[in-house]
Amino acid sequence: MGEKTKAKRKIIYIIYLLLTVLIILSIIYIVNFFITKREAKEQSNMLSALKIDEIEVTKEIVQNNLEDNEENDKTEEIEKGLIEEDLEEQKQKIERMLQVKQLKEQNADVVGWLEIKNTNISYPVLQGKDNSYYMTHNYKNEKSKNGSIFLNADYNWKIPSNNLLIYGHNLGNGMMFQELLKYEKESFYKEHPLIRFTTVDEDIEYEIISVFKSRVYYKSEKNVFRYYYFINNESKEEYDKFVKNAKNASLYPINTTANYGDQLITLSTCSYHVQDGRFAVVGKKK
Asked: Rounded to whole angstroms, how far apart are CA atoms 68 and 70?
C-alpha cells in the first residue's frame, strides 16, 4: 500500500505541475495576444496618421506645382512682353539711325538727330566748319531765320571729344531751342529727364544732371564758369571741375551726376535774363 500511495502522489504531482505550466503558458499567450493587439492598433493609428500627412503633403505639392505653373506662365508672359518691347525699341532705334543716314546723304554736315520726348525739340543736328553758318541756314543749306540745331565746330569725332556742345536759337515761335527754357521749372525737368541723340552708329539717351542760367563773360573776368569752352578736357581735374561747376550752378538739385569718362551733352541757347544771357542743360550718357 505504501508503494502505491507514493506512485499515486507522484502522478498527482506531475499532473499539478503540468497544469501549472499550462496555466502559465495560457497566461503568457493571453498577455501576448493583448499586447500584440494593442501594438497592431497603435500601428494602424500611426499608419492612418501617416496617410493623412501624406495626403496633406501631396495636396501641398500639387498646390505648389499649380502655383509654380501659374508663376511660370506669368513669368513667360512678362518675358515675352519684355522681348517684344525690346524688339520694338530696337526697331525704332534702327529706324532713327537710318533716318540720320538718309539725311547725311543729302548733306554731309548732318551728324545726328536730337530729340526730347513730348516737346517740340526734334531736329537734325549739323556741324559746320565754323559756328556761324548754321545760325542762318537749315539742313538743306537754305537761308533760314530759324537756322539749325548745330554742334560746336571744334568737336572732334576722331577722339571723340567729351562734350557734345550743341546750340540752337531761342525763337518766340516755339521752334528750335525755345522750349529748352521750360527747364527753368523743376516740374518740367521731372517730366522730361532724358535727351536722345542719334547718329548713324548709335542711338543714345542722356540723363540730365544740371540746368542753369549763365552769360557770355568778358575776357577780363576771372573765376567764372565759361561752360561754352568745355568740349575736350585736358585732364580728369578739368572734367571734374566742369561737372562740379555745372552742378553748383544748377537751378535746382538733381541727384544724377557724371563721373570722369562719362560722355556729356550740353544744350545751349540764348536767354534774356541778362545781357548776352545763356541757358544750358547738361546731360550724361546713360
From this structure: 5
DSSP helix/strand/coil, 117: coil
- Compute CA distances 58 → 54, 55, 115, whole Å: 6, 5, 58
User: At residue 213, what is the residue type?
Assistant: K
Domains of the chain, residue spans: 1-106, 108-285
Name the pTM for this structure.
0.71
pLDDT by residue (tens digit) across 218-244?
Answer: 999 999 999 999 998 879 999 999 999
Percent of the chain whose pLDDT exceeds 70: 74
What pairs with residue 214 in β-bridges? 278
Q: How far is CA 47 from the centre of its chain?
A: 54
Residue type, 37: K
Residue 146 scores a pLDDT above 90: yes
Which position has the grid cell 551728324? 111
**What pLDDT score does 36 carry?**
55
Please, how many CA atoms are within 13 Å of residue 103, restricted to the half-sphere of its CB?
22
Q: 108-285, what's its fold?
A: Sortase; Chain: A; (2.40.260)
Long-range pairs for 95-101: beta carbons < 8 A, 24 or more residues apart: 96/198, 96/203, 97/198, 97/199, 97/200, 97/201, 97/202, 97/203, 99/198, 100/124, 100/198, 100/199, 100/200, 101/200
